[in-house]
Every structure is written in C-alpha cells, then in structure tokens.
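Please predict the structure of the following assembly.
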Amino acid sequence: MTFSLLLAQLLNGLQYGVLLFLLAAGLTLVFGIMSFVNLAHGSLYMLGAYAVAVVTGATGSFALGALAALATGTVVGMLLESVAVSRLYRRDHLDHVLATFGLVLFFNEVTRMIWGPQPLFVALPEGLSGTIEIFGFTYPAYRFLIIAVGLAVAVGSSWLIHRTRVGMLVRAGSVNPQMVGALGVNIRLLNAMLFALGAALAALAGAMAAPILSVQSGMGEPVLITTLVVIVIGGIGSVSGAFYAAIIVGLTDTLGRTYLPLLMREFASRDIANAAGPALASMLVYLLMAVVLAVRPQGLFPAHKG
Amino acid sequence: MNTRNRWTLSALALVAAAGVAHADVKIGFSAPLSGPVAAVGQDQYDGFMLALEARGGKLGGQPAQVLREDDQLKPELGNQIARKFVDRDKVDAIVGLGFSNVLMASLPRIVESGTVAIATNAGPSVLAGKGCVPNVFSVAWQNDGSAEAMGKYAQDTGYKRVYLMAPNYQAGKDYIGGFKRFYKGEVVDEVYTQVNQPDYSAEIAQLQAAAPDAVFVFYPGGMGVNFVKQFSQAGLSKKLPLLSAFTVDGTTLPSLRDAAVGTVSGAVWDVALTTQGNREFIDSFTTKYGRAPSAYAAVGYDAANLLDIAVRKVGGNTSDKAAFAAAVRTAGSELQSLRGPFRFNHNNLPIQNYYAFQTVSEGGRITAKLMGTPLPEHQDAYAAQCKPR
C-alpha cells in the first residue's frame, strides 16, 4: 500500500508539473527573450478554460473544446501583442507590471460580466471519466491525458527550439536581440509569434485543467505565482529549464504536502504538526526558490552561459 | 433625497399626519459582489431584492431605498462601507455584511452608533458569545451549525472512522471543531490544506489510503468545486460517503452536476424543504434570475421579510435605534422563515433547524433530497457566554 501510494503521489506530482510547464514555457520565453513581464499570462489560462467550457458545453466534444482553447489563446495573444504589449517592450519593467495587471483586472471582469460569478461546468472527455487501477490504487484516467499532453508539448518545444530555424533565431534572440535584428531578421514578427505561441500554450493548460478545476473568473492568478517560481528556478528564458523546474516544483509541492505533516508528527505533537505541517508545506516551493536564488541566481538550467 | 430634504419632508408629514413620520426606510446592503465568492454575495442581494419587490418596494409599508456596496471580501473595505452607511448615508439598517472576517472589521462603528445591522452570511463565535451586542443580528446561522449537524449525522449514521479536511485558516478550524463537538467516533486524520488550493490529488490519494468510513470537508466556493470534482474523478464518490458544509450548495452545484451526486451537506435551507412559501420562493427566484436559488438567496429573502415586520412594529419610526433593534429581535419570532422554525436567541443569533441534504439525480436532474434534521431548533454553543449588558 505504501509503495502504490508513493507511486500515486509521484504521478500527481508529475501531472501538476507538466501542467505548470505548459504555463511556464510561454512565460519564460516572453520574459527571457523580449524581457517582458506578463502578469496577464494567467488570464490566457483562464480564457482557455472558458473556451473549453463553452465549446464543450455546446458541442459535447472535449477535443473541439481544446482546439477552440488553442485558437482563442493564439488569437487573443496576437491581439494583445499588437494592441498593448508591442508598445511596452521598450518601457520599464514596472510599466509592464502595471499594464498587464490592468489586463488581468479587465479579463476577470469581462468573464464575470459575460458568464456571471458562478463557476462553469466542464464535462470530462468521453471515455476518460473512469479510473485506472494501479497496484490496488484507483487513479483518475483523465490525469494520464494531462501527463501525455504535457510531455508531448515538452518534446515538441524542445524540437522547435533546438532543431528548427525559428528555434535558432529564438535562441539567438534570447542572447542578443539587437544583433539578431541587425542581421535582418524581423524581430518584431518573431516576438509576435512567440507571444502568440506562449499564449496558446497557456490556453491549452487552462483547457487541460478545466475538467478538474473550478472554471471561474480569477482562476488564473494563484497558478501564475507558482509559474513565476518555476521560471525563476529553471532560469529565465530557458524552455528546457522550465520543464525540469516545473517537474521539480510539482514533485516538491505534492510530496511536501503529503509527507511533511506526517514527518512532523514524528517530532512534535499531533496538534502542532497539524498546525505547522501544512503551513511549512505551502512554503516549500518558495523556500526552494530562495535557495536557488542564493546559490545560483541565474537559475538551475539557464538558457545560456555567461 | 438628501438628509435635509428628508427631514423637511418628515417635519411636514409630521404636521400633516399629526405625529406619524413617513420617512423612507433606508437600507445599506453590503456583500462580496466581485471576485471568487461573488456568487454568494449576488445570491444574498437577489434574494433580498426579490422579497422587497414582492412587497412593492416597501418595508413595513414604508417605501424602501437600498444602497448597495461591494466589500470585495476585504475587511478594510467592509469597515469603510459600514462607516459610510452609518455616517454619510445615515441608513436605518445595514444588511449583508459579508464573510466573518469582513463582518468583524465592520463591527466597531456599527456597535458605537447603535445602528441595526443584520448579517446574512456570517455568525462568528465571538459575536455569538462574549462579543454579542444588542443591535447586531445574524439572520443566517452561527458558523459552526452546519458542521455540527454533519457531526451529529455521522454519529447517528454510525460511521466509526471519519477523515476531516478543511482549508488552513480560522473558519476551517472552526468547522472541524464544530464537527467534533457532536461526533464521538474515531477521527482518522485531520488535514488542513492551503487556502485556495486548486489541486487536491495528493490529499485524495492519502485519504484513499487511510480508508475511513466517511469524509467530512469544509471547502467553500471554488475550493469545493475543485475538491468534489477531483474526489469524484478518483472514483471515490461511489465507495466513500462525503459529508460537507458550504461545499456543495446552490452556487456550486451547477458546475458540479453528477460529480456531487451522493454527497451529503449540512445546511439550513435547500430546494428540498417543504416549508410554507418555499415553492413560491423557488419559482419566482428561478423565473426572475434564470437560475435556482441557494441558501444564501433564501437568507437574503428572509432578511427583507424580517425587516418588513420590524419596521411595521415601530410604525415606520426607526429613529429610536434601541427600540428598532428590540423590534428586530421580536420580529424574528414572527418571521415565516423559508427555513422552518426560526427565532432569535438572546445573543441575536438564530435558533433554527440544521438539516442534512443529499444531492441526488432524479431523471437526469440534479437536486437535493432531505435526509433528516440532525439538529432541530438548535442553539449555538456560545450563547451561554453572551451576557446581557
């Protein structure tokens, strides 16, 4: 039982990790390459979840819903880039934060005006609503889909960055954007594409999370904070760093939440462990980030050396 | 109408009607109307306005004016709103007052001014016990009540080993405490999770491994949707009875649907009650707002009817605040509450039934079924600490 429980917890950590990766990939690219702080990334996640809720609700097909979420993310990402973000690249980081925080409020209010404050219903995809038995333990089948999609995106983005011309420009742009621009590459177009790609991935994360979470206005903010932790640990601008860091954060958080309170009971009374355990477990990823910042401020897996 | 005009008119009316003041009744309504718990505040407001509308916009025969404010679930904002209602708007009564933390922050000015205040969503233990005041009421519930009902239900049903879960903050601990006050069996484990945690897969795996007879959780709002969905997706809803308070309710049920089927909730109201006027309330609410009402809406509705009786008792003269507060207290006993038997205890909190409802699927429609009344005409555990002053 203990082994199968540990296995289930490792799966939980992996699944949380890949979900974080979908969010972190876009955020780290935009932050690392365009040096743009995008707090509205969580809003794109929320829009993805709403797109799935609406389209799956109307058509009954989760696949169509996920496609709609990708399309929504891409279109909204492109619009955002051309209307707001592209005007802010040259400005200070504080302006980025201010402007994108405004966008967060805007998107939260818009969804509330259109769909109301009540959370929306999203059905599990047909055929994945059951559970899978692993060593006498039941595990929700849908969570395997999340893991599969997350890993597929990780492989795809690794290929895109390391094996294609666009990827080469992205890597070059993250080191020296001025030089890439001087060589005649349309850096503005590249930026717009990257931003839209990041937005689409965020929307995909929202779509994948929609059947297991409460789809409601403001759902993007809590997850954004963890995503920022991930990109700091992984090294800003590094997609592979974001992947490893997302898995590390996912596992740390899940295993910490599970085993830290139990561990504390060995040393302290049950009451104290019950009070301190969860508090400490919720701090764990931030402690990890603090340690990483102290020891390796450039992140564990930085995009480029020096 | 500004205050001076109102006074002039009142004076005129006083002369004309020889002693009967016909001023408007001014109500300040505050609730969380934006953010993650906006659905809760909106239901209270809609319920209140529905009752007011049914009375032709009048309370106790006097034209009523309702000022609405959004507290955003922020205590400091609740405090400001209470000050605004008391000092600037000079309202006759404040209704709503949001969640416990917001209510507690709003109290100082309300207590000082003596203005009648009627909470429709909170009944913190302090207010029920040592900190009770004559002009502050909760028409809703004492916070522990629903959890106590579930504890009693678990005890009566004969569950031997129960697993408890709640968010790691004061209310979470209060609910677990309330459950344990009436449950005498073994508590397998008490798990406190982060506030607003989205994913419970790790905790659900632990819970599954512990194999208890039943689980009791308190996860309000979006947290409840997350937990119940994931609990059901892990295939546990068929194996393990899930008891809850403020987790599966009218505001979360539309997004849970089948995932909530089988769960049992402790509550003061649900659509399954056959109390007088309940059917009409559900129908008119559904027609007007296009959704089913929740317990929050029912309490808002009761609050308006309570004020109607109280204003009538003082003949529309709400200027004597102490007399008006006393009228609200006695109005409680006359209120035909949607929840069944209702009256105010000496601490101004309700003595009422706490029910157990099960979410069931009837011909594809998800609704609630009454399982019993674990705590009939229940008074809270703190009333004894409330000393008259």
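The longest strand of chain B covers residues 365-378. The domain at 3-141+274-348 of chain B is CATH 3.40.50.2300 (Rossmann fold).
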